[in-house]
Specification:
Oligomer: single chain
Strand order of the largest sheet: 8-9-11-12-13-14-15-16
Bound molecules: iron/sulfur cluster
Number of strands: 19
Largest sheet: 8 strands, mixed
Amino acid sequence: MGVEVPALPSLREILNQHVREGDLYEKVDRNRVRCFACGHCCPILEGQPGVCKVRYNQGGKLYVPWGYVGGVQCDPIEKKPFFHAYPGALAYSFGMLGCDLHCGYCQNWVTSQALRDPNAVSPPLEASPELLVRDALRQGAKLLVSTYNEPLITAEWAIAIFKEAKAAGLKTAFVSNGNGTPQVLEYLRPWVDLYKVDLKSFDDRHYHELGGRIGPILDTIRRLHDMGIWLEIVTLLIPGFNDSDDELRRLAEFLVSVSPDIPWHVTAFHKDYKMPDPDDTKPKDLMRAAEIGKNAGLRYIYAGNLPGRVGDLENTRCANCGGLLIRRYGYFVEEYRVTASGSCRDCGRVVPGRWAEKFEGQIADRQFMPGRWVEIGGPASGFPGLTR
Ligand code: SF4
């Protein structure tokens, strides 16, 4: 007679054991709640999840992810990318699972689409704010970053970690699609220093294809800037999707209308996930986008993902005198000339951003995995191991 092997818990069952009641919702009536962690503002019936699949209504309360990470990694801050905030700093980066959009070209689909796509399998790892902050300090990190999945939909957990991080003197950041609401931004405001928004297109129809709307994203960009949170924008340039001259011009003009000092990163697409058709972005495409941004009036434009192939577009130059401020190759800071007070060494003009008093070198110019993390459910849970 064969031995009966107990069924392994599903990813859904494991995640449902790692929740707590959320802060970012309201009760609509006895059985319905409305979540406002992201721009979808889902009305959610009893027993149902929201669009993101990770927040759900049970018994008239909204339950949200808590107590795990979907991955942890140490990245150079330039990889997030932030080019005007603490250059060279090590960014201790964590994510959870799930997303409120479903971009076919997602480079983090293993974590972002974990509950939508059966091929996206990522092991959740047991974590606590204290453990994460202790590990970040041990690695020499200057900041903690919520990234890899959409941090807005797991904002309560990120803020619990950021409170601990702030108490330890660390900076904090969100790397996000920007599909926010006024309520979630007020919730984040005291605890988030830096915010990167992925502005994927300037066409509402394109956003619909990705599962969102452009309105909440533009509103988030304006609000973040008005709140004084340091903001950088990234646009992944996808040939034939979002790279027409007209769309790029309108996008850049919008950013200028918020502030010409917002850094804009145009980065190169490479075939991924469900979008194998468009060509990879070429250096000349990035340079064309940068020229459009410059003509619109943006002062700081960077071309990413093609190190050494985009001329001066990896470097920061003074918007007043053109003097070199930071020379980079990929994520590597080769030369640093911003003064202790955050200004140009040649002409004294203040450089917009968040600057350390001193450039203390770079711990790493590429990602690496920090210490040992324990997979929830252990190796027998059926999820591939992630021990480093
Ligand atoms: S985070 Fe967004 S997608 Fe998820 S339940 Fe809340 S409003 Fe809906």
